[in-house]
Amino acid sequence: MKNIELKVQVKDFSDVVPILKRIAARPAGLISQKDTYFNCPGGRMKIREINNRRYELIYYRRPDVQGSKISNYQIIKMDKKMVSELKKIFRKLWGEKAVIIKKRRPWLLGKTRIHLDQVKGLGNYIELETVFNNGDHRKATVEHRHIISVLRLRGNKKIKESYSDL
To answer: Which residues contact 100 (CB under 8 A, 6 or more apart)?
Structure first.
């Protein structure tokens, strides 16, 4: 799967939430996430624990550049008993890089997921992920740029790295 991704640092979400409501973005709840990253060569590998009820193995590759970038990713759903065993294996293989704990308030608009992230020890971030297939990259780019403009994110500090690198 692919998406166009942008992450910016913000002071808080007070300016963006009214805009999200005005443009008819749909709130998708509050998520508690724990991401355990491993020192995986050739990309990034993490085990995500969502609300202590859902579990995913996520592998992705994307360039570390400021601004919007294309991310290629794969997600495998897991059950809880697999989490500790895979963590043990990955720690032996590559070592653990970081554990990131965040509260995420996702909003949905078109093919874009707008994440309002409060990351423990790092601060507040807005992350856009506009999903696309090979055939609709241009359409996704237009949507992605439009949302950046409407949310007035151009002036915010753009983050090129993963949370695990910060």
So the answer is: 33, 34, 35, 37, 119, 120, 122, 163, 164
